[in-house]
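Hi, here's the filled form for the chain we discussed.

Project: internal
Contact: R.S.
Residues: 459
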Amino acid sequence: MQEVYEKFLSESESKAFNLAHRKTIAFNISRYDASVKKGKLQYSNLDLAKKRAGIIKHKVLENLENYLKEFDLNISSRGVKVIWALDAIEARKAVVEILEKHHVKLVVKSKSMITEEIGLVECLEKNGIEAIETDLGEYIVQISNDRPYHIVTPVMHRSAKDVAEIFNQKFGLPIDSTPEEITAFVREKLRDKFLKAGAGISGANFIIADPGAVGLTENEGNGVMSTTFPEVHIAIAGIEKMIPTLNDLDLFWPLLSTHGTGQKVTAYNSIFTGPRQKGEANGPRFMYVILLDNGRSNVLAQIPQRRALSCIRCGACLNGCPIYRNIGGHAYGTVYSGPIGSVITPHLQGMEIYKHLSYASSLCGKCSEVCPVGIDLHSQLLNNRNYSVVNNLVPSIEKRGMKIWKIAMKNRWMLDLPPSNVKNFFVKKLFGKTWGKRRTLPVVSKKTFGKLWKELSEK
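And the returned structure, exactly as it came back:
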């Protein structure tokens, strides 16, 4: 537990003082900000759209069990095999068993944070199955042995020059290759993989209860090819990705694209309702949907924090967060970073290990302001902090200190009694390390406000 916390502090400091890193992130997020500003112009009343989306997701979370049953029943009726996975281990096992059943040795994968969450690619490699990332950003992450930096933009931390260097080292492309040249190279390289792959694996932006379908949105077309060219399609979805009906997509897809990339709508939006049916020319012969819990029920059980499961993974809160803008995505040490990651990760992977993430916030409220489904993220961060205290997950010295502070605050004479130099000594002793070595602790005045006021009044 302490190791995770110390690593977070170390990496946060390293990234915050890395000027090249900050320059790259500032540039990329500035482009995002400009695009989103334009994208939002499509709405005559954005606040109303966000409110509607929030209400729908609230309804889903309050009745999630029933919606999941409805989804299972409807999509199963068209030949889809639905598998319920309690955790990452069960999900990985299910995928491996499906691939072994169909004798698959090559898998193409569309962009999916949930497969990152369960460590799927590493698992497949250990089982002798080649898994190729087909999203350009994820492909760059894969060939450079990196980790996704952002929910939507995996290589936000890389400049065009950085990417060109990666392809030069890996494939011998010219060191000054342009983004267009690199994209063309990757497109050519992946086409053969799409044609030869025995299975395609995707995530799900949305799972739709009525009529029982999986919604996938992307900009490159790799998701469409990953799910239609191979004979087998495996979709992995968190149970919280539910929306009630197809009609709801006209609200959620534009909100997702606008807040994710600034587009009015993404280039490719697909709805999968089952494997290839009689008379259809393309599509997989077999389709599987794995519904993953993996700690989501723990979040659902927390009445205030369950609102965080409304998240549609647009990444807006990351781009708006001043902490994320400084320390970046890798410092969090989790798949889901930024404000939303700080809220859900402690419940998904253990509050005792990741509670520090809920303190890595300025509580400025920007994350709540930009959220397209109206999640009060800054309040959820406070709820997590309260959860830590109520469940005795804070250090004993902190508990004792707060107890003494409470007593002192209720008895004014106790605050007035010690001289200022004694007060300053204890402030430094108790809060110096927490305050940080680069910030100056406030100094307790020799005279209290009460004494100064009395002196002024007597003049």
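Let me know if anything looks off before we file it.
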